[in-house]
Specification:
437 residues, alpha/beta, Aspartate Aminotransferase, domain 1, Aspartate Aminotransferase, domain 2, 2 domains, four-stranded mixed β-sheet, globular, binds pyridoxal-5'-phosphate
């Protein structure tokens, strides 16, 4: 049997021959293998290790192979590996109760899905049925998933070849560094973005708008932390026109921002919250929708016309319960807040101060982005060729980064310690110093 580098080469060859990869031209595929992982590190068969500053797809909030979660999945597998969603099941009921306990009292029920996209699908469906209206307004700078309505709600390029679902409208959200509103302060950006959003709602016919669907902090679009008052202002627009506010916390939720939900830091309570990723760190695929008491009541007598074979899958539910236990007993959310405040925030600011490539640093908790520019004045994005070199250098030096367009997102697991965080920042600083532009 092959081992080490030979095994890596064989795995890569087999992968490239047989696996059709997401969002990729198949002639240009990733060139490294992940064979295993623990905590914040992953490795290949040859024993090369990387410090994971990506949390894979920003989902391993408790890191790799948390022993208590792995044990809970095994225990559930011995008990019952699958069950119909139409039955009641103790693990599912417990998972729902545990998630609701972390959210404001306004939330009454959880609808479980397989991941984030179908959570958004079902949230938009609930909003449509609850309001009797059709349209959903979301942001151009967003990602909501890869199924019919979720991909059309998405604002970025992934929407354009996939526009089959109907009734989706987009608006620009606040993004002061590249303001669409000619604003020069957070307050002005906030006020003008809200005015623009309301204009879109009214121009579309407010009485036809079922939902405003926003990522609390747009993630893949660049960790665009909204200015103070923006989400509260969106809430007011929703209330003024009877629109359901759906906040997508698939990436921002479950510790990433240093709180259980990102919206808790923004003085707003939505009507529906979608989640996935961090709820069980992706150990078993799961997502869902937190449903307010008012919207839940809509489906007391009226049938909810949606479902999934694996809604509330026992292995995923056991992973949720064990993940929440581990996060609470290990103080994972508090750790994310502390590392953001004491290490990543100041460390990234220091990198930015000494590096002409960094246009802006944004973020909170373990959810940060460095926006890289070719020129500080024009703010021209660093070109893809240079970004590819940055990614390559990081990998060579033992850091697994999350690179999106002209940005490096710094999104390590929420469990990351001070030493590992500083180690990753050191590698990143060196790469930004040494890269040829
Ligand atoms: N919503 C947000 C904010 C996301 O970041 C993602 C995935 O990255 C999704 C939804 C889609 O989730 P999934 O890939 O689990 O369907």
């Amino acid at each position: 049997p092959l081992t080490g580098a030979d095994l890596d080469a064989a795995v890569l060859a087999a992968d490239h021959r047989h696996v059709l990869h997401s969002w990729s031209a198949q002639a240009h595929l990733p060139s490294f293998v992940v064979a295993g992982g623990a905590g914040c590190r992953v490795w290949d068969h040859a024993g090369t290790t990387w410090l994971d500053f990506s949390s894979q797809l920003v989902n391993t909030n408790i890191g790799h192979q948390h022993p208590a979660v792995v044990a809970a999945i095994k225990e559930q597998a011995d008990l019952l590996t699958t069950v119909s969603p139409a039955t009641a099941n103790a693990t599912r009921a417990e998972a729902a109760e545990r998630i609701l306990a972390l959210a404001p009292a306004a939330f009454r029920k959880v609808f479980f899905t397989n991941g984030g996209a179908d959570a958004n699908e079902n949230a938009v469906r609930m909003a449509r049925l609850h309001t009797g209206r059709d349209k959903a307004v979301s942001a151009y700078r967003s990602y909501h998933g890869n199924t019919g309505a979720a991909v059309v709600a998405t604002g970025d390029w992934r929407r354009v070849p996939n526009e089959y679902a109907r009734g989706h409208v987009h608006a620009f959200g606040p993004y002061l560094y590249r303001s669409d509103f000619w604003a020069d302060s957070p307050a002005q950006e906030c006020e003008r973005a809200l005015q623009h959003l309301e204009r879109v709602v009214v121009a579309e016919g407010a009485a036809s708008v079922a939902a405003i669907l926003l990522e609390t902090i747009p993630g893949t679009a660049g960790v665009l932390v909204p200015p103070p008052g923006y989400l509260a202002g969106v809430r007011e627009i929703c209330d003024r026109y009877g629109i359901v506010l759906v906040l997508d916390e698939v990436m921002a939720g479950f510790g990433r921002t240093g709180s259980w939900f990102a919206f808790l830091q923004h003085d707003v309570v939505p009507d529906l919250v979608t989640f996935a990723k961090g709820v069980n760190s992706g150990y078993v695929p799961a997502g869902g929708v937190l449903v307010s008491a008012e919207i839940a009541a809509t489906f007391d007598e009226q049938v909810f016309p949606g479902g999934l074979t694996y809604s509330g899958h026992p292995l995923a539910m056991a992973a949720i319960v064990a993940t929440l236990d581990a996060m609470q007993s290990d103080g994972v959310v508090e750790n994310a807040a502390r590392i953001g405040r004491d290490v990543l925030g100041p460390g990234l600011a220091e990198i930015a101060a000494g590096c002409p490539l960094v246009g802006e640093v944004r973020g909170t908790g373990v959810f940060w982005a460095l926006e890289l520019v070719a020129d500080q004045d024009s703010r021209a994005p660093l070109p893809p060729t240079v970004m590819a070199r940055i990614k390559g250098l990081c990998l060579e030096r033992g850091l697994l980064p999350f690179v999106a367009e002209n940005r490096v997102h710094v999104v390590p697991p929420c469990i990351i310690g001070e030493d590992e965080a500083r180690e990753g920042l050191g590698i990143l600083a060196g790469v930004l110093r040494d890269v040829t532009t």
